[in-house]
Design goal:
heterodimer; A: mainly alpha; Monooxygenase; 7 helices; globular; B: alpha+beta; Nucleotidyltransferase, domain 5; Actin, Chain A, domain 4; Substrate Binding Domain Of DNAk, Chain A, domain 1; six-stranded mixed beta sheet; 27 strands; about 35% helix; binds adenosine-5'-triphosphate; binds magnesium ion
Chain lengths: ~180, ~625
């Protein structure tokens, strides 16, 4: 059973977030180890421990699955693998000119961080957010074309770029949060 | 089964840096327990050793501190799960007792000749809570849920669990303090998104949670295990020292452990007074030596010194909001926990950051213990519809070649959770693979907390041929287990990570047997109490199951169960242990089909028609 099926979802990039959440909470109420409470005559030992152990394995797997489907980036990676695409290790390509651009951007962000230049960091953050949204939009349309071989290869390139973008975005966010207004 | 069953009583314990409490759910409501004398059990987390090695715990230990500053241990929670190199200069300045330098991996406190582990000191506090609760309840307390700061790492959690074991407690669950507080807060059906701001004696935690129909889901947590009221006391001590050194040149307070202990006490009193009045007087009095000094303090002066610490807490709050993807205007409430949140400066700053008046209806001292009692009640099988979905506060990973870190589990992942990573060897015929388990957010292994090293032996193979598959599993206590397998040869190693700075299972067992006086118990009386309690649990649980699933049973099966229930009730009223045990056994046996039906229902529902066994450990691995 893949992650999508586990939560009763179709295997595709677009996921109804509220549907996923509903299914996740419902399953959590059944599978969480804490929900395995003593049954008649069971006490706190023996079969209860066994049930809790099984519940631990299942809910650990379920939480990991939920985390994967809950984030568009991770979901895209996972779906690409299910469709037979390459991993980032197997194909490290990025769009032409992208790395150079990132390098410059990163330098600028470091500088702004050093200078505690909040407005500049905020501007960069907004730019990165919109560039991430654009890439995710492309990812969505590429998945619509899958399992075409070319689409899968292009997806790999997009997702590699997306990784850089999200990392830098995360760094700016934590820098902003650490300093405060 | 039958007589092997235990008492159903499970208490909730807040093992605090400064104060510890024990609570229990009674008639559906959590209450802080009272001791045999009817006093609320509120134990200062202080332990003092007399010269004859007998031990004082709590208020008595606190009174003895000035007299025996080197034999009195407070704030031990700061040292739980620590190695010597983790003990900061701040900690040292704060803790007047000496540390043993013998074992770098595990901090020990030197009390005279004895070197005592923090686990043992904590166990003494837990045992005090246990004994006093037992006196108040008139029955034995064997099982507990114990709280820890949300930002505690793996080693600190394990140390807490071990302290429980040493105290003779079966620790059913370790839960996070802010999460426990949210349980006590949200029980009345207050759905929404909340922030729990917990500024205690030794640690600071912030958690963002979503409460929805009995499910308490932590979205993110952040904190600082070195930020608490203790630090504020220390700044006041410094402030007082600088004034004293000017005024009383002859008094060498800094070199005088007795005066320092008195000063620390006086500073805490003044700090608390400054929460309710604009000025306070720090009174340093040593009757034995005829010293009596008054230092007037103004709130503004104190606030200037305290501000940097409050700012540190706010920075943590901003990160937590960021990680939760929650904006302050999306919050429905901010709940204050911990004694320090009574400080006006703290309240004002929290209000400024969260743009709302914090919620102060819950008692900041009790709320954590009360929440722990609620979770204890759930685990005891009360049937309360509550589920905690907590997160791991720090990322977990492995060291890579060149001192980097591969993260397997990211901070704020909902637990339990798991992740796997595959790698291979670099050298031909390598037979030993070392795995270094790390916790923390930094990029380099040396900047992360080293949790454990472990070794996997494999048969010699050319480089890159072995396929080593490592699995991290974090359980519902937030404690990590690691499993490694080399898939070609099937070589396996599985460890419950024994932290670099922890005790092994054997050590825990030995301390349990050695260091605690096991008073000979009246075995018979205990057996009778146990059996009666067990009968009560079984009867209640059977009634509940009959209500839920009784209709799926045949008339005959149902009648048989009801008859056995009557028999058990009758014999539980007698003093005949053998008869009660037999009646229990009989009911358990007769009720088996009922248990079966219930288990199957759970399993079926869980995987929508599939049996639990069919699913095994899938869904398959991630990443
Ligand atoms: N009115 C008050 N004003 C300011 N500080 C106070 C007040 N009352 C108590 N405190 C401080 O609160 C701290 C104790 O808080 P609390 O009992 O919540 O901590 P704890 O639970 O023992 O510690 P932790 O949760 O960090 O392990 C002490 O530093 C104490 O001095
Ligand atoms: Mg506390």
């Amino acid at each position: 059973m893949d992650h999508f099926a586990f939560f009763g979802l179709e295997r595709r990039f677009d996921v109804d977030a509220s549907e996923l959440d509903r299914s996740y909470l419902e399953l959590s109420r059944l599978l969480h180890p804490d929900r395995q409470v003593p049954m008649p005559g069971e006490g706190q030992t023996g079969s209860l421990a066994a049930r809790r152990a099984r519940a631990l394995a299942l809910s650990a797997a379920m939480n990991a699955a939920h985390a994967t489907l809950g984030s568009p980036e991770k979901r895209a990676e996972y779906l690409l693998r299910l469709l037979g695409g390459k991993t980032a290790d197997q194909d490290k390509r990025t769009p032409p000119g992208f790395l150079q651009e990132q390098l410059e951007l990163r330098e600028e962000v470091e500088e702004a961080k050093g200078a505690k230049d909040r407005p500049r960091l905020e501007t960069r953050l907004r730019e990165l957010e919109s560039s991430r949204d654009e890439r995710l939009e492309r990812v969505r349309s590429l998945f619509a074309r899958s399992p075409e071989k070319e689409a899968l290869a292009e997806l790999r390139v997009e997702l590699n770029a997306l990784k850089y973008v999200s990392n830098l975005e995360g760094e700016i966010r934590s820098a902003l949060a650490a300093e405060g207004p | 089964m039958g007589s092997s069953q235990k008492d159903d009583l499970v208490v909730g314990i807040d093992l605090g840096t400064t104060n510890s409490l024990v609570a229990l759910v009674r008639d559906g409501k959590p209450v802080v327990l009272r001791d045999g004398a009817g006093e609320r059990i509120f134990v200062p987390s202080i332990v003092s050793w007399r010269d004859d090695a007998s031990v004082l715990v709590g208020a008595e230990a606190r009174r003895r501190a000035p007299e025996a500053p080197r034999r009195t241990v407070h704030s031990i929670k700061r040292l739980m799960g620590k190695g010597l190199e983790d003990v900061t200069a701040e900690d040292r300045a704060l803790l007047p007792y000496e540390l043993s330098l013998a074992d770098k991996k595990l901090v020990r406190v030197l009390v005279g000749e004895r070197a005592v582990t923090p686990q043992e000191v904590s166990a003494l506090i837990l045992r005090e809570l246990k004994t006093r609760a037992e006196a108040g309840l008139g029955r034995e307390v064997k099982r507990a849920v114990i709280t820890v700061p949300a930002y505690f790492d793996d080693a600190q959690r394990q140390a807490t669990r071990d302290a429980g074991k040493i105290a003779g407690l079966d620790v059913l669950r370790i839960i996070n303090e802010p999460t426990a507080a949210s349980l006590a807060y949200g029980l009345g059906g207050k759905d929404g998104t909340i922030a729990v701001y917990d500024f205690g004696g030794g640690t600071f935690d912030i958690s963002i949670l979503r409460i929805q129909a009995g499910t308490f889901r932590v979205l993110s947590t952040n904190g600082d295990t070195h930020l608490g009221g203790d630090d504020l006391d220390r700044t006041l001590v410094e402030l007082a020292l600088s004034k004293l050194e000017e005024r009383e040149k002859s008094l060498k307070v800094r070199e005088d452990p007795r005066l320092l202990a008195l000063l620390r006490d006086a500073a805490e009193k003044a700090k608390i007074e400054l929460s309710s009045s604009e000025r306070a007087t720090l009174v340093l009095r040593d009757e034995k030596r005829g010293i009596s000094l008054d230092l007037p303090l103004a709130r503004a002066e104190y606030e200037r010194a305290a501000l940097p610490f409050v700012e540190r807490s706010l920075s943590r709050c901003r990160r937590a909001l960021e990680d939760a993807h929650v904006k302050v205007q999306d919050l429905d409430a901010v709940v204050l926990v911990g004694g320090v949140t009574r400080t006006p400066l703290v309240r004002a700053k929290v209000e400024e950051l969260f743009k709302r008046k914090p919620h102060t209806d819950v008692d900041p001292d009790e709320v954590v213990a009360l929440g722990a009692a609620v979770q204890a009640d759930v685990l005891a099988g009360s049937g309360r519809e509550v589920l905690l979905l907590d997160v791991t506060p720090l990322s977990l990973g492995m060291e890579t070649m060149g001192g980097g870190v591969t993260k397997l589990i990211m901070r704020n992942s909902t637990i339990p959770t798991q992740a796997t990573e595959d790698f291979s060897t670099f050298k031909d015929d390598q037979t030993l693979v070392e795995i270094h388990v790390l916790q923390g957010e930094r990029e380099l292994a040396k900047d992360c907390r080293s949790l454990a090293f472990f070794k996997l032996r494999i048969p010699p193979m050319p480089a890159s041929v072995p396929r080593i598959h490592v699995t991290f599993l974090i359980d519902a206590d937030g404690i990590l287990r690691v499993h490694a397998i080399e898939e070609r040869s099937g070589s396996e190693a599985s460890i419950e990570v024994v932290p670099v700075h922890g005790l092994t299972q054997d050590e825990v067992d030995r301390i349990y047997l050695d260091s605690l006086d096991h008073a000979l118990e009246d075995v018979k009386a205990h057996r009778l109490i146990d059996l009666r309690n067990e009968s009560e649990t079984v009867l209640r649980a059977t009634e509940k199951s009959l209500r839920e699933a009784g209709s799926s049973l045949s008339q005959d099966a149902r009648r048989a169960i009801e008859a056995k229930m009557r028999e058990l009730r009758a014999s539980a009223a007698t003093d005949d242990a053998t008869a009660i045990s037999a009646a229990l056994e009989a009911l358990n046996k007769t009720a088996e089909p009922l248990a079966e039906i219930l288990l199957n229902r759970v399993a079926e529902a869980a995987v929508k028609g599939k049996r639990l066994e069919d699913v095994g450990a899938s869904p398959e691995k991630t990443s």
